[in-house]
Amino acid sequence: MTPEKQPTRRSRSQRRIFVAPLNDFPPGTRMEVQVGRVLIAVFNVGGDFFALFGRCPHQSAPLSRGRLQGTVICNADTCWETQWAHEGEVLVCPGHGMEYDIRSGKAFGYDLKLRTYDVVVENGQVFLLT
Amino acid sequence: MASDEHSVTVRKVEPSSNPVQDEDLDQYGEELSGLTIVDVDVHVDDTLMFMLDYMEGHFRKRMETVLQADFKGEPGNSLRNLIAHIAWLGSSYDKPPRAKLATKEDLVSRMEKGIIDYSILFPSELLPVGYLPEPEWAAALATAYNQYMVDAYQNLDGVKIAIVVAPQHPVRAAEEIDRHAAHPDVVSVCVPDVGVNPPIGDEKYWPIFTAAARHDLPISFHGIEALIHDNYPLRVAHFHTLMQVNSMGFPFTSMLQIMSVVCAGIPIRFPNLKFAILEAGLTWMPFIMYRLDAAYLRYRTEMPALEKKPSDYIRDWYIGTHELEALPRRGDLAKLIDLYQGHNTTMWASDWPHLERDLIAGFMRYDMDETLRRKILGENALRFFGLKPRK
Ligand code: FES
After folding, report:
1. How far is CA B324 from the centre of its chain?
2. Is B96's CB within 8 Å of A29's CB?
3. Residue A79 exposed, middle or buried by CB count within 10 Å (0-12, 13-18, 19+)
4. Of A31, A64, A67, B257, which residue is most buried, by most CB within 10 angstroms?
5. Largest CA-CA distance found in chain B, in angstroms, rounded
6. For residue A20, what is the domain's CATH number?
7. Distance CA A6, CA A10 (A)
8. What pLDDT, on a 0 to 100 scale, did the predictor assign at position B76?
9. Is residue B64 scored above 70 in pLDDT?
């Protein structure tokens, strides 16, 4: 695998986008934010916020509508045994089921990572940084 | 779609309990409007319970018995579910959520968007009919299915039907074709090609081709995972996972049937009969065409009826895009089509609303000239199924 390149797209100043009052965005809910042509999916998972590019690279299904569940993993850490893992943190594309790590945007089983965005909570309000 | 770079909209959404289906069409609505769009592979809820009223005597009794069966809490009204229960149930951990079967209302509302000109309905439940061991039972199911589909789906705006035949009973298959061919909404004969043994070019099946040619109805081969069929070709006997059976099963079956039909000289005996392959993807087309050409050089004398090399026949076959492979570059699909010379034969197919259906974005992401795009989205299908343009 090639070492991960850090894209240099953050050169422009970040934009703060108001998403919702914290009270309207409780754990277990999600929002779809459209910024110009770009769709972003924002999740509150147990009080932690995650935001990812909102369209699946496969056939563009809206990722904000995917379910969060676990998945099976099998790697050196599991001694190559298949285990159920990441319960509640795997975003399943509602198109054909590609799975993404909600934290990193990395697709399970693909050399592919969705762009992620920072989310900040200030004075009881949720903002997306793009 | 908001296009102003600075505009922001936020909306609360819920996880989808059904795979997303139609929003893709809305998204491309503007780009597609004015174009003829034919979706050549569409499925509706045709589970066995709908066929009960179309069966008589011991077949009806048998169907009642089937419908009473209970597989892990699901009614035994689905041949496909029944098969999946035996083999790989749960292997995908229900991701994505199971596709709901489409009702007639679902189909009508999809058509009412006014984007798709024609939907061609193909069987779901009866796709495994080709490997049922009893020809009489298989033929009875096909007869019930066809009458049900014609009764339930005729005279719907833009909806056309492919009747199904049980290849293991060629005489009854020909009768089915004779019965329905004149119906204005019946546009093709679907031959479920999986499990059909000997391969479909065998003389045994010629009554099917004779009947289809007599009525000028094109033949469409439609595959299925063939979940329990163990050995035809490269199935359960060879692979332990559904992914392997699925990804090899469809194209291998298609290649095998194409080879069988061409090498049996059917294109020469039935020169006006048109053929299509559905649900097998596209990337294998150049392989089978030019691989056969290479062998033909040495073995032509085994099939002296052929007047051209195999690829010259195969390039006349129509082919549905589903399940469209995700090729690495945007120009790759046009290159692939160049390679198998499929400009006038490739037809857009979604497989809506099945789990593996293609969203139209999967096709629209590829670059190609507008003439080719128009042909694939509708014009080729109008010609194959003999339909009138609606736009
Ligand atoms: S659109 Fe996401 S998996 Fe197909």
Report:
1. 13
2. no
3. exposed
4. A64
5. 69
6. 2.102.10.10
7. 10
8. 53
9. yes
Q: Where are the alpha helices (DSSP H) in A31-121?
A: none
φ, ψ of residue B170 in degrees (nearest 5): -60, -35
Average pLDDT of chain A, as a whole number: 91
Tell me the pLDDT tens digit for each residue of B351-390. 998 878 899 999 999 999 999 999 999 999 999 999 999 9
DSSP B379: I
Residue A11: inside a domain: no
CA quadruple B383, B385, B389, B391: dihedral, nearest 10: -110
Could you identify the atom of ligand 1 that is nearest to the CA of residue A63? 2
> pLDDT tens-digit profile of B144-187?
999 999 999 999 999 999 999 999 999 999 999 999 999 999 99
| Residue B228: per-residue pLDDT | 54
Integer angstrom CA distances of residue B74 from B36, B46, B230:
40, 16, 24
Query: Do B9 and A34 make contact, defined as CB atoms within 8 angstroms?
Result: yes
What is the spatial distance between Cα B280 and Cα B221, in angstroms, rounded to a whole number?
Answer: 10
What's the topology of domain B20-70+101-385? TIM Barrel (3.20.20)
In a domain, A115, yes or no: yes
Report how far residue B232's alpha carbon sits from residue B281's, in angstroms, rounded to the nearest whole number: 18
B207 — pLDDT class (breaks 50, 70, 90): very high
Neighbours of B277 (CB within 10 A): 28
Interchain proximity A37–B1, CB inside 8 Å: yes
For residue B2, the model assigns a pLDDT of 44
Choose, out of A38, A39, A65, the residue to mutate when testing the contact with B (most B CBs < 10 Å).
A65
Domain residue extents for chain B: 20-70+101-385
**B82: Cα separation from own chain's centroid:** 21
What is the DSSP track for B5-52? TT-EEEEEE---SS---SHHHHHHHHHHTTS--EEEEE-----GGGGG
Counting the structural domains of chain A, the total is 1
For residue B29, pLDDT over 80 is answered with no
- DSSP string covering A3-56: PPP---GGGSPP-EEEEEEGGGS-TT-EEEEEETTEEEEEEEETTEEEEEESB-
How far is B34 from chain A, CA to nearest CA, in Å?
A: 23
Q: What are phi and psi of B148, to 5 degrees?
A: -60, -45
pLDDT at B298 over 50: yes
| ipTM of this predicted structure | 0.76
**What is the Å distance from ligand 1's center to A57 Cα?**
7
Residue A10 lies in a domain: no
Return the structure tokens found at B94: 């229900």
**Structural domain containing residue A44:** 16-129
Contacts of A96 in chain B (CB under 8 A): 19, 96, 355-356
In a domain? residue A7:
no
